[in-house]
Design goal:
single chain; alpha+beta; 5-stranded antiparallel β-sheet; 3-stranded antiparallel β-sheet; 8 strands; elongated
Length: 277
């Protein structure tokens, strides 16, 4: 015990540098443990509300991330100020005498604050939430995390993009409203267009009558244009967010099956070879 005292205390019985450093590191460990427990309690509380279907899941994940970020920032700030007090460092005097170093820190802090303020506005305005399909800063994908400083989205290649909130100027949220599923298919000029309209309208109506993802449609527009090879037919349906791609695939398959079953030709490139004798 006496050996430990000699290491961490000076002749006057006060903590020396090593002693203060040890106290500071011990305090940091306690801060980290407390922070993690508070974050777990926050997540557990919101998970209970999700299980009881009391609040929106996407919004909840965003709020959990926000509150956990705030807890982390506050706890680390507490540690910094207590550590400064342990080392008898005047925080105000440190800022006042920082000089050029303070200017450099100021520029770094400026970027940090811009990200922080932008993040707060994004969260307050409910622009997007975790799980939304969005386009931000020329990146497109599913929102994985909305933090105070950055937003993380995952594209369809599996790549994660971390975007500083201050760079998010325009947001395109494709999960807020109905989404369009669109299929265009040509039929040959030799085919009966009236028959094609009846076949597709009846067949698509029966096929998707009980698809809960479809809000409106499928509706048939015939013709939308005349191409070099045939008449272009368009099928449109409006779906709940995130289901438009599945519905498009299903409509494309059903259109092909209906046309094939009724001998209505879908034109394709052909090569006629005439042999002269």
């Amino acid at each position: 015990m006496e050996n430990i005292k000699r290491i961490v205390m000076n002749e006057m019985g006060e903590l020396n540098f090593l002693g203060k450093l040890a106290i500071s590191l011990l305090l940091l460990l306690i801060i980290v443990l407390v922070k993690n427990e508070i974050k777990k309690l926050i997540k557990k509380g919101f998970d209970t509300k999700i299980a009881n279907s009391m609040i929106d899941t996407g919004r909840t994940k965003t709020l959990v991330t926000l509150m956990q970020s705030v807890v982390s920032v506050v706890m680390y700030l507490i540690w910094i100020f207590i550590t400064l007090d342990i080392f008898k460092i005047d925080a105000k005097g440190l800022v006042a005498t920082a000089g050029i170093g303070g200017i450099a820190i100021g520029f770094a802090a400026k970027s940090f604050l811009e990200d922080l303020i932008s993040g707060m506005f994004l969260l307050m305005e409910d622009t997007f939430n975790a799980g939304d399909y969005v386009k931000l800063a020329d990146k497109e994908g599913i929102v994985q995390k909305v933090g105070l400083r950055t937003t993380i989205i995952k594209d369809f290649n599996g790549d994660l993009h971390t975007i500083p909130n201050s760079q998010i100027k325009i947001v395109t949220n494709k999960s807020k409203n109905e989404q369009r599923a669109l299929v265009e298919v040509p039929i040959s000029y030799e085919s009966d267009i009236r028959k094609a309209k009846v076949v597709l309208a009846d067949g698509l109506s029966k096929r998707f009558a009980h698809d809960d993802a479809i809000v409106r449609g499928p509706d048939l527009i015939v013709p939308i244009s005349l191409s070099d090879s045939g008449v272009i037919i368009r099928v449109i349906a409006y779906t709940i967010p995130g289901e438009q791609w599945r519905v498009e695939t299903a409509m494309r398959e059903e259109v092909k099956n209906l046309l094939d079953a009724n001998q209505i030709e879908i034109p394709y490139n052909k090569l006629d070879v005439n042999i002269k004798k």
